[in-house]
Automatic annotation (TrEMBL):
Belongs to the HIBADH-related family. It catalyses: 3-hydroxy-2-methylpropanoate + NAD(+) = 2-methyl-3-oxopropanoate + NADH + H(+). InterPro entries: 3-OH-isobutyrate_DH-rel_CS, 6-PGluconate_DH-like_C_sf, 6PGD_dom2, 6PGDH_NADP-bd, HIBADH, HIBADH-like_NADP-bd, HIBADH-related, NAD(P)-bd_dom_sf. Pathway: Amino-acid degradation; L-valine degradation. Residues 163-289 form the 3-hydroxyisobutyrate dehydrogenase-like NAD-binding domain. It comes from Sphingomonas telluris. It comes from the Bacteria. NCBIfam families: HIBADH. GO terms for molecular function: 3-hydroxyisobutyrate dehydrogenase activity. This is 3-hydroxyisobutyrate dehydrogenase. Its EC number is 1.1.1.31. Keywords: Branched-chain amino acid catabolism, NAD, Oxidoreductase.
Length: 296
């Protein structure tokens, strides 16, 4: 069994790290938050005093940090040169493709193997070990990383070379942001046209309007399977994080010269929702902004 340093024990990492411990690994966990550290300790991880401490003789380093600046800072100042060069580095945070490639190049220059491995699935999937991982890196790096990712995953997919995991993640979430906005608009229009939301769900979830946003994550309370809509849009995937991912997608589109008008519209909608105070609400809560007279 391996010594795994796990850095970043927030909503996601706090669920993921214990799954590695349950799989029999020695997980040395660190987070700037004392509460997050205590929770990880109670869930089978070993508390480390710092990132440097956690990585010192690690076989594998896993990071689950908020954004690119944290990832670049942690790797440059506390991992590269501190962990043995034999350690495999796995960054699961969602960050921009260019930063992922930069940190992987800097790691390779110092002799490390690194993959970007962002995830799809929320806090519940993190806790239950049911995340989908999209992995960027060489074939050899992917094969090395896979067995360490598997205890946290329902699927582990090799997306391509360095940064390809991040590319897949932001393209996937651009679809999600756009389909959720379209699904919310359709429910509002359907209601104004006199359709019962349940009847519209029954039809559209079996017709060509079907998508994950409709069938699995319906934004209307009391319709379809239980979702954050049934809990006043609490829990789930925060609108602020959806906005972050849409901004990453729009920046990447600009750099790559891709035309993404629907992604741009979705970014504007989520920006407005966050400005109105909805940043911590589930992202399906934009239905209330699209029509503030919306009633369940
Ligand atoms: P979070 O803010 O809950 O957790 C991040 C943790 O990192 C915090 O506990 C923070 O204290 C810690 N941290 C920050 N800087 C640190 C440092 N220098 N050293 C050690 N610890 C540090 O965020 P989260 O919701 O767990 O998300 C983590 C990543 O996963 C993000 O990139 C996010 O976009 C992505 N993601 C989140 C979700 C979700 O539903 N929450 C889903 C998929 C992907």
């Amino acid at each position: 069994m391996a010594k795994i340093a796990f850095i970043g024990l927030g909503h996601m990492g706090g669920g993921m790290a214990p799954n590695l411990a349950k799989a029999g690994h020695e997980v040395r966990a660190f987070d700037l938050s004392e509460a997050a550290l205590s929770a990880a300790e109670q869930n089978g991880c070993v508390r480390a005093g710092s990132t440097e401490d956690a990585v010192r003789d690690a076989d594998v380093v896993v990071t689950m940090l908020p954004a690119a600046q944290h990832v670049l800072g942690v790797y440059r100042d506390q991992v590269l040169g501190m962990a043995p060069t034999s350690a495999l580095l796995i960054d699961c945070s969602t960050i921009d493709v260019a930063s992922a490639r930069t940190v992987e190049e800097e790691a390779a220059a110092q002799g490390y193997t690194m993959v970007d491995a962002p995830v799809s699935g929320g806090i519940a999937a993190a806790a239950s070990g049911n995340l989908t991982f999209m992995v960027g890196g060489s074939d050899e790096a992917f094969e090395r990383a896979k067995p360490f990712i598997e205890p946290m995953a329902k699927a582990v997919i090799h997306a391509g070379g360095a940064g390809a995991g991040q590319a897949a993640k932001i393209c996937n979430n651009m679809i999600l942001g756009v389909t959720m906005a379209a699904t919310c608009e359709a429910f509002v229009l359907a209601q104004k046209l006199g359709l019962d939301p349940q009847v519209f769900f029954d039809i559209s979830s079996k017709a060509s309007g079907q998508s994950w946003s409709m069938t699995t994550y319906c934004p209307v309370p009391g319709v379809g399977p239980e979702t954050p809509a049934d809990h006043d849009y609490e829990g789930g995937f925060a609108a602020g994080l959806m906005l972050k991912d849409l901004k990453l997608a729009m920046d990447a589109a600009e750099q790559a010269g891709a035309y993404t008008p629907m992604g741009g519209e979705a970014e504007e909608l989520y920006q407005r929702f966050v400005n109105l105070g909805g940043g911590s609400k589930d992202f399906s809560g934009i239905i209330k902004m699209i029509d503030d007279s919306w009633k369940a």
